[in-house]
Amino acid sequence: MSPNLFRVVAAVSLVPFPAALVSQPAPRTILAIGAHAGDMELTAGQLLIKQRKKGDRVVILHMTLGEGGNPKMAPAAYGAQKRREALAADSVIGAESIFAPYRDGELPNDEAARRYVANVIRQVKPSFIITHWQKSIHKDHSTTSLLVQDAVLLASLPGVVTGTPAHRGIRGIWYAENWEDAEDFQPFISVDVSEEREQWRQAVTKYEFVGGSISSFRYLEYYDALAVVRGAVAGKSRAVSFNIDAFGKRRVLDSLP
């Protein structure tokens, strides 16, 4: 897996190339897989917006609606609300929405769920996957991470039959920074999202819980401030950070870079 999707390469030339001759990267597909509707929009939404503006296809798979998160509403009613909110938020991002058939708090780590995610991967054909870090205080988050890691392998094996041909084009899994997934998380990669703040705020505030009327946790302020903190470390106005698997951090060089 490539350890860096958005590496900036600085080059100095005595004679600049005309803009028309500078090749642009081919559009890619990014699949963000969240345990609950709202997870990926909050943690990775600014990156998804940036890549969508660059012409990439963006798809968000919601493993559950997070329908158990409102103590004032029945799960069925809140689930219907979360679905509407997800569609509205993802529309602002420019993302396609997929809703898995699983219930909040009951996401299973079993063969059927792994094959479900593998089949979505085969259908969407992503170049990159963004999901939760594997260590979390929330069961659904850690389960989603484990399912994704196994599903990537299953999706690549022609002998695994899901009704869709195998897909081997995944260049990396990136793990988003989430306040509930903080254990051992390392902000290994940071991406400049200095221009994406307002569109991101428009997207995530489609969710009622982000505004603070359902949960006492200040989601909007936390992730807004986190982008400033990560940006300060990265030398940018704003940034979002991701971890990758340990083997992806290994590099082989002929000499000092």
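That was protein one. Protein two is written in the same sequence-then-structure order:
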Amino acid sequence: MFEFTRLNSLSELPPRDEGCIDVAVLDMNHRWLNVGHESIVRALRELTTDLRPALERAGLRTRAFSFDVRDQLVVPQHDGRFGLYVGSGGPGHLDPRENLGRNEAEIEEDPAWEGPLFELFDAIKADEDAALIGVCHTFGVLCRWAQIGQPLLRGAENLEKSIGVQHNVLTAEAVAHPWFSLLTLSVGTVVPVVDHRYYDLVALPDSAAEVCVIGVESDAGERAAVLTMVEFARTPGDVLPRIFASNHHPEIPGIAALSRMLQDQLASGTVTREWYESRAIIIDELRSNEHEEQARLVTADFTFGALLRAHLERLITRQAARSGRTVPAAL
């Protein structure tokens, strides 16, 4: 019911199949070792399992295609094939022209991907049937595309690199939002998140973009607002964010699943022991406060998992109807 393929060029993309729901994963990792991309694929695989009865009744299955955006410069076309895009985290400066490898917060890359990716964002925003959910690096790139935030390297005055369990503050707009208001009712307006970033996205005060700021960094103090969650588009009259991203890592699963993923990566030889130990540290931090871990998982569900599920359900219903198959009565 679920098929996953990594693509190094658009020519590797197989033909469209009306019996498949295709999801585009925008891999922003530039080949760097990470657990986020695998967590995204895992989430899509598990959602397919959860939705299997509905998929079977509709005669559908899901396929996820990972596009190597930053390293191989592979950016999908928005031609009606993909109704759901998921953007990953990744290393380096949020402006690829600033990535010159001068320090540990930068890499070296070709910025040629940015223009096609911004065009893709434009096309997704213009199509009310398309959705995009992004995390971390994708969040920063979206903020630059929408011209609402300026990347700023974190320094001593704002606690250096943001890593581990941190806290975000949900805004008044979140409290009034038809989707995120449920999150505020569940866990309050200060929510724990998993961070791993060098850059803040500082709100531009003169921005004219029509976005809804959902979260900001809790320790901003007297500084300008540091954006952490933003809804970039919502279909009129809908409850769900259609383009939404967060500057944390809601794709990271619970403790048991994360531990298995890291151990599997180490056993497969795809990561070094040093890399494994640097990521395994977060497991002890998550275990140290069971109540906060539960709040983190609820926050992650509202900002990632449940959003993916809702948009996949929408695509199942739409594609089943378009193909003349039986539309599931209930998902």
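DSSP finds nine helices and twelve strands in the chain. Keep this in mind for the problem set.
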